[in-house]
Write a structure and sequence with these properties.
294 residues, alpha/beta, Rossmann fold, Alpha-Beta Plaits, 2 domains, 6-stranded mixed sheet, 4-stranded antiparallel sheet, 10 helices
């Protein structure tokens, strides 16, 4: 049985589509990335799964409980951790009192361990904390009762790069412990670090679900190269070159065979070469734009 399963899950706000005919399954013990640009429907999906808003049509289960059955979902949520994209703190209370309250609701078997790991401050009022320290406090509350499933919406928002890496290591360790993680993101590199599979959503519709390596193979690389010679578009008319630009330097996105690209570049006198992951928006436009608007 899947930890999360949706069946034609749909939510409209009046005439505006939040999500429509969403079908996905998250298996026990996997880290599943829910990937999409801002406004794609990620938060609507999460809020529907947790029973915060009711679906317009279709259905879903979380830990085997129907999200439309309030009593059953409450029972399931005892084993669920939740990290919203913008945690609603009482900013006049301290971190310690906030966690005490959370502990009274769901337990705190791992509180001390997590506070040490993420160095979350608890002695000051939450309103006086930085965005990153608030996020660390939110991460602690999501995991401190040792849930079977954790649902997170943009979990690394506000964290500095070192703390992000610590968080990624922690997620990998949780997967090894058999925990199921579902989190939304718009950052491809983040998903690459920790996810087993991804679902990609655009304009409220799921356009693909695939393993991370397949996604990366399809997304390609952004290439920037400076050469001594004068070049024209015909010089880079090879398989896998997209969005070619010759504005002072040669720039393109490449989805072909890298050996073929290296062989091709060897014919030029290269002054500088840079290769990086294609931005997420380019991945959507190139591979899923037509599908998403079909």
């Amino acid at each position: 049985m899947s930890t999360i399963e949706t069946r034609n899950l749909t939510k409209f706000y009046g005439e505006t589509r939040g999500i429509e005919d969403l079908n996905l399954a998250v298996e026990e013990g996997e880290v599943f990335g829910f990937l999409g640009p801002n406004g794609a429907g990620k938060t609507t999906t999460i809020r529907t799964l947790l029973g915060f808003i009711a679906p317009t049509a279709g259905g879903a289960t979380v830990l085997g409980r129907d999200v439309r059955d309030e009593r059953a979902l409450i029972e399931a949520k005892r084993r669920v951790g939740y990290l919203p994209s913008d945690p609603g703190f009482d900013e006049e209370t301290t971190g310690a009192r906030f966690l005490d309250y959370q502990a009274s609701l769901k337990g705190d078997a791992r509180r001390g361990e997590l506070l040490d790991l993420f160095d979350a401050p608890t002695d000051r009022k939450i309103g006086a904390l930085s965005r990153g320290n608030k996020q660390k406090l939110a991460i602690v509350q999501a995991f401190m009762h040792d849930p079977d499933l954790v649902i997170m919406d943009e979990p690394t928002s506000g964290l500095d790069p070192l703390m992000q890496e610590r968080f990624y290591d922690f997620i990998q360790a949780e997967r090894e412990r058999g925990k199921t993680i579902f989190f939304s993101s718009h950052i491809l590199s983040e998903v690459r670090k920790v996810c087993d599979r991804v679902g990609i959503i655009r304009d409220g519709r799921l356009v693909t679900t695939e393993d991370v390596e397949t996604l990366l193979d399809r997304s390609g690389k952004r290439v920037r190269v400076n050469v001594e010679e004068s070049v024209d578009p015909a010089d880079f008319d090879i398989a896998g070159v997209h969005d070619l630009s010759l504005d002072g330097e040669v720039r393109f996105t490449f989805t072909g065979e890298y050996d073929a690209l290296i062989d091709h570049l060897s014919a030029f006198h290269i002054v500088d070469l840079d290769v990086e992951e294609a931005p997420l928006d380019e991945v959507f436009m190139r591979f899923y734009g037509g599908e998403a608007h079909a």
